[in-house]
Amino acid sequence: MTSYPVPINPTQTRIGWIGTGVMGGAMASRLLSAGYAVTIYARSPSKVVHLQSQGAHLADSPADLARNSDVIFTMLGHPSDVRQIVLEGLISSVNPNCVIIDHTSSHPVLAKQIFDAAREKNCWTVDAPVSGGDIGAREGKLAIFAGGNEDVVKWLKPLFDVLGKVTFVGGPGKGQSCKIANQIVVGGNLLGLSEGLVFAEKAGLDKMKFVEAIKGGAAGSKVMELFGERMIGRDFRPGGFTEYMVKDLGMGLDVGAEQSDDVVVLPGAALSKQLFSAMVANGDGKLGTQGLITVIERINGLASERS
């Protein structure tokens, strides 16, 4: 589907972007560096000066952005934001044949509703949440889980390639389901790494040597590669907010509960959600998910310092 509606080209394809936080800002920056014309809507224009310096244009409103875009990316906080900005906002203003790509970690049911609403306007939507954190966003190495129409996802590949590696995982909502499953795995890995580091400290091991020793074996993981040194160095700056991990795991548990004909029992995800929720209760919801180690430290009576 390389000709829908015309092949993507940096000199012709107009990009719109809404959501310029840690992840969204880095992703929009990569598209600008690749030569695309990007229009941004930001409620706080002062926070996107760095993107303007790269050539980004500012829109007065989401509707203004929609009228001047062929492909629109959104990277928002919560499903309620997606409902308000995409379902109740953008879709009413987009041009025919426009494609909206939602990178927010949101709910599969909402993604399906947005897809159906877009088709009524002769447009397409792709739910495409990502994994890889702030490092992956900056380096263009995100894992992108795309749900929707496969031919449209193929057409979008030149844009996705700037951001990372896209995998088509199924119809509308399947990208969100894939991200929830991803977060269940990531949460479990972060918990295991946190407990391993606390045990290593209690046992008198050098934590850096511990990580170096095990990362080439079965205990090694991308989570360890991304967060091991950060945990040891008390670097809890967010690549993804802990409060969003609570949201994502909560959606997984909710979806499991809704599927009464095929119940999904997720005891590990429930425990992970409880421990990440403890971070939020401790006032650390805006820290990165690697801050989970502080909860395990508190349980074990170890002094916990935030960076």
From TrEMBL:
Transmembrane segments: none annotated. Residues 14-170 form the 6-phosphogluconate dehydrogenase NADP-binding domain. One of its GO terms (molecular function) is oxidoreductase activity, acting on the CH-OH group of donors, NAD or NADP as acceptor. Keywords: NAD, Oxidoreductase. It comes from the Eukaryota. InterPro entries: 6-PGluconate_DH-like_C_sf (IPR008927), 6PGD_dom2 (IPR013328), 6PGDH_NADP-bd (IPR006115), HIBADH-like_NADP-bd (IPR029154), HIBADH-related (IPR015815), NAD(P)-bd_dom_sf (IPR036291). This is 3-hydroxyisobutyrate dehydrogenase-like 2, mitochondrial. SUPFAM superfamilies: 6-phosphogluconate dehydrogenase C-terminal domain-like, NAD(P)-binding Rossmann-fold domains. Signal peptide: none annotated. The lineage of its organism: Eukaryota, Viridiplantae, Streptophyta, Embryophyta, Tracheophyta. The keyword Kinase does not apply. The active site is at K179. Pfam families: NAD_binding_11, NAD_binding_2. Residues 173-295 form the 3-hydroxyisobutyrate dehydrogenase-like NAD-binding domain.
